[in-house]
Amino acid sequence: MALYLITGAAGFIGSSIARELVRRGDRVRGIDNFETGKPGNIATVRERIDFREVDILDYRGLKEAMAGVDWLFHQAALPSVPLSVGDPARSHNININGTFNVLLAAREAKVKRIVYAASSSAYGETLTLPKHEEMVPRQQFTAMASRAETLPMWTTQSRQICWPWRPPPAPRQGRATTLGPDGRSL
Residue 97 to residues 12, 92, 104: CA-CA distances in angstroms? Predict the structure, then answer.
């Protein structure tokens, strides 16, 4: 049976992935430093996964967490445009250097597949819809996000994802979509 590692496992999307993998009966390992993730997000599955409090900047901890992993869902990040503007060095360190650490540890562990959570914030604040890969980043966070997307891995993009247990955010661009338990829009 495959072993899945989720970075940012206590975040909104990481914890959703963890719950689904546990529901399917898969083996799951999760890491998070709880800087933006919340223990409550994984409370229902924490006893059924191999959870480790590890920061993606801690290369030794990453290497240990990566041992035996087949699939990696890289969800860990400092996801904030305002924080990236206020403290660009810290944001760069976590989002770029941290992602590099994750990829390097995954390569050393011979992880078979990596799925990276990209952000539509990589395209910046623009009213242009739909967003597309040729859009040029204008802010520090958007430049970092678009840079991370060029790394060799599968990339998924989340645009204001909501679940029944999380209220929809105030729409910034486009419209928020709330998904029901069956995965369809409500």
Answer: 22, 7, 10
